[in-house]
């Protein structure tokens, strides 16, 4: 989830983002007084995180949401900015036409070039005579595949925390908190059935806020965790994440689980 927060607000609560978050970026051309409006509908990795030894598939989708087709040539450009090497895929696709309501999707394989540090890529949409529009993404790293769940089941709600990860669970649901190497927090949800634990969703980042001051253009700031605490009672467990959003905001996210929930 994403929040638009007034400057006097305090953020407390639990949130889940089940897909990578992007802003719709507008590109405008003109034809016979009708307007083609192309947006970068999404640019994200096909998987919310990367583990050592894995490659990454990046996916970008553009869409014409305007009232006319695109007739002038647009140029896309995918760039590996930090920590990534190019694998395959057309890094400079050219769009010569795009019908009203139509979409185009592009994919690239990129490969981490080290075992630590940020992984950053961008996608730019450009046209002669216009300002380019772009989307930049960072991909979290984790030490091991978080899609693998342990088989143990707790009949009562319980929370536990270590230095880089935490778990809150009962007999029906399990939420795992994983801190990446850049302190961007991910949330992994699993449900339990007769066949064992099944992965339901992975969200990265766990939360963002949209803020700005005065004459600034607002921007999204990601929650980065600094401390994790637990509270356990016979009927309820709480996993408490403390940290900040950028340089100006402090935040606390509390994930609660009760017996039978």
Write the layout of secondary structure elements.
Layout: E1 2-4, E2 11-12, E3 26-31, E4 34-45, E5 56-64, E6 74-82, E7 84-88, E8 94-95, E9 103-112, E10 120-126, E11 133-138, E12 158-161, E13 165-169, E14 173-179, E15 185-193, E16 196-203, E17 208-211, E18 219-232, E19 236-245, E20 249-258
Parallel strand pairs: 1-17, 2-20
Antiparallel strand pairs: 3-4, 4-5, 5-9, 6-8, 6-10, 7-9, 10-11, 12-13, 13-14, 14-15, 15-16, 17-18, 18-19, 19-20
Task: Give an overview in words.
- By secondary structure, this protein is mainly beta.
- The chain has no helices and 20 strands.
- A six-stranded mixed β-sheet has the order 1-17-18-19-20-2, with no helix packed on it. The chain has a five-stranded antiparallel β-sheet with strand order 3-4-5-9-7, with no helix packed on it.
- Strand 13 (165-169) and strand 14 (173-179) form a beta hairpin.
- It is elongated.
- 31% of the residues are buried.
